[in-house]
Amino acid sequence: NFVSLSTALLLLNKFLYFCASLFRLNQNKKLFLTNTFLLNSTMSAYGKLVVIMAVVMLAISLDKACAGDPDMLQDVCVADLANSLPVNGYLCKKNFSEIDFSSMAIAKAGATNNTFGSVVTGANVMKVPGLNTLGVSMARIDYAPGGINPPHTHPRATEMIFVLEGELDVGFITTSNVLITKHIVKGEVFAFPRGLVHFQQNNGDVPAAVVAGFNSQLPGTQSIATTLFASSPTVPDSVLTKTFQVGTKEIQKIKSRLAPKK
């Protein structure tokens, strides 16, 4: 015998209502114990099975919600970058070729003559349309001597880097404010957990370079400094002065240095 869907939902609803009642009456210990006894003695085997199934289904749904990009539903879905229809990802284009799955975007070193002495060159779905729905992308990061890839996060992906040349001091900060840091050399890899603030710095006298891999077709990057001091519209000075415990002049000075070049 199998419980019908309507019966299963009714039993689950009654169980949840009963739990809510217990919560409201938890100050009455005697009544709480009595209801607990009644629950164990009157709930049918089918009812318990429904509850177990509901918990399992919830666990499965949470696991899917915490995954990276959504699973693909066909062999390929080459991104139609010309289509402006807003969807989570990109629509599939009808005609595609091998060109959509390859790129020379990260073949050469990028120019590092900028404020931070580093440059990130992406090989994501915007450069390789065939990555759409595949849940992967790459990037190349080049560092001048003394250059830094300043503290930032990737809200949609975990990152792993492989050192091509040079040496780096890298690290990330946990949500408990613990710094995990290491000096890495050519041939070494290092992983940065999804969403955590992290950085890389070249403290050597020669250029350095890494290749980064992500478990998202478009991991996104949010720089801590530019997010706070160079957003549009700007974050109010009152928020930043209170946050960093400094005066308005200091905040304005930082904003002027990080403001986008016109």
Automatic annotation (TrEMBL):
Oxalate binds at residues 149, 154, 159. Disulfide bonds join 77-92. InterPro entries: Cupin_1 (IPR006045), Germin (IPR001929), Germin_Mn-BS (IPR019780), RmlC-like_jellyroll (IPR014710), RmlC_Cupin_sf (IPR011051). Keywords: Apoplast, Disulfide bond, Manganese, Membrane, Metal-binding, Oxidoreductase, Secreted, Signal, Transmembrane, Transmembrane helix. The chain crosses the membrane at residues 6-25, 37-62. Gene3D superfamilies: Jelly Rolls. One of its GO terms (molecular function) is manganese ion binding. Mn(2+) binds at residues 152, 154, 159, 198. It is found in: Secreted, Extracellular space, Apoplast. SMART domains: Cupin_1 (SM00835). GO terms for biological process: plasmodesmata-mediated intercellular transport; regulation of root development. Residues 104-252 form the Cupin type-1 domain. One of its GO terms (cellular component) is plasmodesma. The keyword Lyase does not apply. It catalyses: 2 superoxide + 2 H(+) = H2O2 + O2. Its cofactor is Mn(2+). PANTHER family: GERMIN-LIKE PROTEIN SUBFAMILY 3 MEMBER 3. Monomer. In the absence of manganese, it forms tetrameric and pentameric forms which show superoxide dismutase activity. May interact with bacterial adhesins thereby protecting the reproductive tissues from microbial attack. Has no oxalate oxidase activity. This is Germin-like protein. The lineage of its organism: Eukaryota, Viridiplantae, Streptophyta, Embryophyta, Tracheophyta.
